[in-house]
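This part of the workshop introduces the protein records we will be handling. Getting from the letters to the tokens is the skill we practise here. An example says more than a description, so a record of this kind follows:
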Amino acid sequence: MGKVLILLLVAIGVWFFLRGLRNGKRDQSARIAQDVPPETMVACARCGLNQPRSESIASNGTYYCCEAHRQADEERS
């Protein structure tokens, strides 16, 4: 009976330990996500695709998703 009780207590201790590790990782990832500000999204002037401003191509105050769309709009003008 004593061995079973000790085994049960060890199992409960391991469970609490692993649960604490899992919650710690979740809290850390939540803090990292809060530190990064959201990026402004812009739409491509040609096709309307939404993407982050840092990944788009700006030309004369308009944004494009790729160089081909920027060139096509400039050729049309």
Summary: Residues 21 and 27 are 10 Å apart (CA to CA).
